Amino acid sequence: MGTLGALKPEDPRQVGRYQIVARLGVGGMGRVYLARSPGGRFLAVKVVCPELADDDDFRRRFAR
Questions:
Q1: Element at 52 (helix H, strand E)
Q2: CA 35 to each of CA 1, 38, 44, 48, 51: distance values in angstroms, whole numbers, following the listed order
Q3: What is the largest CA-CA distance in the chain?
Q4: Which of 12 and 53 is assigned the larger pLDDT?
Q5: Calpha distance 49→57 (Å, rounded)
Q6: How many domains does the chain have?
Q7: Distance of CA 56 to CAs 27, 42, 48, 53, 60, Å?
Q8: Is residue 21 part of a domain?
Q9: What is the CATH number of the domain that holds 20?
Q10: What is the per-residue pLDDT across 7-52, written as a single tens digit (0 to 9) for each?
């Protein structure tokens, strides 16, 4: 695994039921975090930018 980014004050500490552990990357659509499930499994969680999250067209494309 590459270098993990430290969480910044503006980063969430939890998304849904997943505990955020580190920042994996940042791009034009949002941020990707390393997270841990309640069962202890690691996974990536993508959090899209608020302006995109409000766009119905974007949400449809993202869901595909």
A1: helix 50-53
A2: 14, 10, 6, 15, 23
A3: 35
A4: 12
A5: 14
A6: 1
A7: 20, 29, 13, 8, 6
A8: yes
A9: 3.30.200.20
A10: 999 999 999 999 999 999 999 889 999 999 999 999 999 999 989 9
